[in-house]
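Q: Hi! New to this. If I give you a protein sequence and the SMILES for zinc ion, can you show me the bound structure?
A: Yes, paste them in.
Q: Okay, here:
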Amino acid sequence: MGVSCVKCGKEGEPITDTLFMGKLEAEIKAKVCKGCWKQWEGMRVMVINEYQVNLGEESGRDLVKKQMKAFLNLGEAADTAKLQENYKPPQ
Ligand SMILES: [Zn+2]
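A: Thanks. Here is the predicted structure of the protein with zinc ion bound:
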């Protein structure tokens, strides 16, 4: 059975890997398809570089989580202008 994805708006392949996202894990797997999660994984690297996120800090992990929710349309708004400016889709 596919997952009705809130990011791409399509019925997509479900995520089967463990994401280590704690309590967000179930929500992500219920609402996001595998392809869109892969896209986020690429984006996450950019977020970490762009904002010079220190994942050893709570605030850094929070920022990444916020950007993830915004990217995946999980219902939290975040300022992604800086990223969209620099985002180049894979060729
Ligand atoms: Zn999707």
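A: The longest helix spans residues 34-50. Let me know if you'd like me to explain how to read the tokens.
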